[in-house]
Structure formats: structure tokens, C-alpha cells
Design a protein that fits this description.
Layout lengths: L4 H18 L5 E6 L5 H16 L7 E6 L5 H13 L4 E5 L1 H10 L5 E6 L2 H4 L12 E5 L4 H11 L4 E6 L4 H17 L2 E6 L3 H14 L2 E4 L3 H5 L1 H10 L3 E4 L11 E5 L1 H17 L9 E2 L3 E5 L1 H6 L6 H4 L3 E2 L1
Parallel strand pairs: 1-2, 1-3, 3-4, 4-5, 5-11, 6-7, 6-8, 8-9, 9-10, 12-13
Antiparallel strand pairs: 10-12
Helix pairs in contact: 1-11, 2-11, 3-4, 6-7, 8-10
Length: 318
């Protein structure tokens, strides 16, 4: 069956209209945790809000309690507790770090998430089809093997540096996966733990001077310093590749990314269903369908690299 998200959203709106006619005066509270006000999370959030408003959940029917905590555990925990204290009907989190902590912290409030790399490996759901608790949402996982295959087709690298953050399970999962890819494609991995944005910039510069390619895992510290890290890599003629959205536009050579606007739409559909009365544990985790392989022609030229026709035919050249 051909995937049609817009048609599905329209169907949900139809069913919700019946529910709204019964409870027209009720106002739901949805708490959204936008960690560090990261632009990618903000984009997902805005996409979700737009769908909710289009579906009839404007300010008169839905209060959105948005918080922008720092990335540390205490700040995130305080935001989650404030959400429950405010009487939130649902809590929505963006990214692996906030989602993992919300799973541990929330006591009685259903959790929806978006832009989470691997919610099963993260431990927030049992399976994508059957979450197993009042937690569901949308995963932004893309096939790292496909990304690495495209990279080595452009340049068969022998050393890859990896920037990750210990304790951010999504970042740790990507580190594990890139090590497995190293075994398959014959490159050695050198990993550095970036505990904060300052360290991310310094360690990125260090790895760029020691390896042929630099893989940026999805974590807050790296994301906040991505532009500076890419600049350091360019100075060292080091390839940058990632699954973080938007990095190719900033100078990374190649990326495989899930569309952020789709992540927002997917979690919005779940929110509409939950506010209609659907139990969250019955909602399967939705997988990304809008996935793009992006390659920077300018960066390839700067690195004196030729993009094979077979790779170019599958990619969006920037």
C-alpha cells in the first residue's frame, strides 16, 4: 500500500470532529520539551503545532506548554515535573536524551516523542509495532549502512573519527553502529566523548587532524557546535558525514537524513488520536518515510573528490 501521510491526517481529522462536537468546551494541555531550543527540534515542534491547529486544536481548545530546558539532567527533569504539575494531558519530547529521561520521570502522563533515532534500542518502547506502555511517537532512524556505502564509494577511507556523548543513548547507539560498519568496510574508528559544546568543538578539531573522515552522531553538544566542527574539518581536508539534518548545507560532504517536517506531522497524528481518546500504548511508532541522501557538490570539489554517477543518481546534490 502506498504511504500517504496527508490522507491519513485527513482521516484522523474526520474522526476527531465527532469527538470535538461532544467536548467542544474542554481545553487540553500539551507540554512540549524543546531541549536547548535546538533548531531541528524547533522545526519538528512547529510542524506538529501547524497540524494540530489545522485539525481544529487552536488556542481555544489546546494549550501548548512549551519549555526549553538545557540539555543537563536536572534541567530536563525539572521541565518534565513542571509539565505534570501543570496538568498536561500529553508530554511531547524531541530527541533521544529528553525522551529517555521522560520515560524514567513521568508518572501518570502519556509520552509522545519525535526525532528519536532508535526508540527500541533506547528502551522507551518494546517494539515499533507494540510500544508496550503509554509511550509512542515517530522515529527518525535512517540506514547508516547506506550512508557509509555511499561515502566509501566516493572515497574508500581507512580511518573514521566519531564524536559522541556518553550517556546520550541515541549517540551511543550510532557509535556502536559505525563500529560495525568499520568491520564491514575496513576502516578503523577513533571515538571521542564530547561532554559539552566546548569539548565537542575541541575534540572535533582534534579528530579532523587525525582521521580521513569525521562522523557526527546525534547529540546536543555536537549539534550546537556543528558549524564550527565542519569548518575545522574543512581546514584539515577531512570529510564530514552524519545523519543529523541540515549539515550538508553547512559544508558536510554527505548526509542521510529524515525530514523534520514529517516527524512533526507524524507525532501530531498521534497527539490527535490520543486527545480523541485513543490509548497511546495502542499507537505503533511511526517510521520516517521522507529520507534524503544529500551530497555537497561544493565540498566535494574543495576536497578534490569525484561523485560516482551511481551515487549521484540516488542523492540530492546541494
Amino acid at each position: 500500500m502506498k504511504y500517504n501521510l496527508n490522507a491519513f491526517i485527513a482521516t484522523v481529522f474526520l474522526f476527531c470532529s465527532i469527538f470535538w462536537s461532544v467536548s467542544a468546551n474542554a481545553q487540553e494541555i500539551l507540554a512540549a520539551i524543546v531541549t536547548a531550543d535546538l533548531p531541528r527540534y524547533q522545526e519538528v515542534h512547529e510542524s506538529m503545532v501547524k497540524v494540530l491547529q489545522t485539525g481544529g486544536f487552536g488556542e481555544d481548545k489546546l494549550k501548548i506548554f512549551k519549555q526549553n530546558p538545557n540539555a543537563d539532567k536536572m534541567s530536563l527533569t525539572n521541565s518534565l515535573r513542571r509539565a505534570e504539575a501543570a496538568g498536561a494531558t500529553l508530554v511531547v519530547t524531541y530527541g533521544s536524551q529528553a525522551t529517555s529521561l521522560a520515560k524514567e520521570t513521568l508518572k501518570n502522563t502519556p509520552l509522545l516523542f519525535a526525532d528519536v533515532y532508535d526508540p527500541v534500542a533506547l528502551g522507551v518502547v518494546k517494539t515499533l509495532a507494540a510500544p508496550g506502555s503509554d509511550t509512542s511517537g515517530a522515529t527518525s532512524k535512517t540506514d547508516l549502512g547506506s550512508l557509509v556505502e555511499a561515502l566509501v564509494a566516493i572515497k574508500p577511507v581507512k580511518t573514521v573519527g566519531v564524536l559522541y556523548t556518553k550517556g546520550e543513548k541515541g549517540s551511543e547507539q550510532q557509535l556502536t553502529e559505525i563500529k560495525e560498519q568499520g568491520k564491514t568496510f575496513g576502516f578503523k574508528v577513533a571515538a571521542e566523548n564530547a561532554r559539552n559544546p566546548k569539548e565537542a568543538q575541541a575534540l572535533g578539531k582534534k579528530l579532523a587532524g587525525e582521521t580521513e573522515a569525521l562522523f557526527l552522531t546525534e547529540n546536543i553538544s555536537v549539534s550546537l557546535q556543528a558549524s564550527a566542527i565542519i569548518t575545522s574539518a574543512q581546514d584539515n581536508k577531512c570529510i564530514v558525514f552524519s545523519q543529523i539534518p541540515g549539515l550538508v548545507e553547512q559544508g558536510a560532504l554527505i548526509g542521510l537524513e529524515a525530514a523534520l517536517d514529517e516527524q512533526g506531522k507524524l507525532v501530531a497524528v498521534h497527539a490527535l488520536q490520543a486527545m480523541q481518546g485513543k490509548q497511546v500504548h495502542l499507537l505503533p511508532v511511526r517510521e520516517a518515510k521522507k529520507i534524503s541522501l544529500k551530497i555537497s557538490k561544493g565540498t566535494a570539489a574543495d576536497l578534490s573528490l569525484t561523485i560516482p554517477a551511481e551515487v549521484a543518481s540516488k542523492a540530492k546534490l546541494m
